[in-house]
Amino acid sequence: MKKILAIALLATASSVALADNDAGCGLGSMVWAGQSGVAPKILAATTNGTSANQTFGITSGTLGCQADGVITSKARLSMFMGTNSERLARDMSAGHGESLDVLANLMNIKTEDKGAFFQAAKVNFGKIFAPENQTAGQVLAALQQVMAKDAVLAAYQAS
């Protein structure tokens, strides 16, 4: 029992340093740890999202997650965008959908302004998910640039 506890503590301590800002924490971040480039980040984010283990990791403080970490608004947005990029891309291209609504909520967009947000995301989809925007942070920055040019949405810049 002591050996198992020692191994768990060692894994927890070492995994905290391995969390990726774009892909978030979870099994995918552990499996693809140490690799760089777009493909490993996408694979890590996809694995994190499809294996549904981030809740366990956050609760237990394992898999590169911190149970007591403070989530900043930008980190929360990047984490959500990284783990939901495919769904967000689909929803943004259509101008509606559950993941786009969640993103609007994370950005504290008021109900009365969500229509403008959804429309701006749809109209500017090509700018937001441009080929050069390969990380969640780049996609978020592009979205914020689009929002900054809109009179209603400019007030919702992420901190």
Write up this protein.
It is a single chain. 34% of the residues are buried. The protein has helices at residues 2-16, 27-31, 38-51, 54-60, 73-83, 85-94, 98-106, 114-123, 125-128, 136-148. It has 159 residues and is mostly helical. The model is unreliable at 5-19 (pLDDT under 50). It starts with a helix and ends in an 11-residue tail after the last helix. It is globular, with a radius of gyration of 17 Å. Helix 5 (73-83) crosses helix 10, helix 6 (85-94) packs across helix 7 and helix 6 (85-94) crosses helix 8.
- Please give the number of β-strands: 0
> Quick check: average pLDDT?
77
Approximately what portion of the residues adopt beta-strand conformation? Answer: under 5%
Low-confidence stretches: 5-19
Following the backbone from N to C, one meets helices and strands in this order, namely HHHHHHHHHH
| Number of domain modules | 2
Largest sheet: none
Overall geometry comes to globular
- Total number of helical segments? 10
Radius of gyration: 17 Å
Straight-line N-to-C gap: 45 Å
- Helix content percent band: 55-70%
Structural class of the secondary elements? mainly alpha
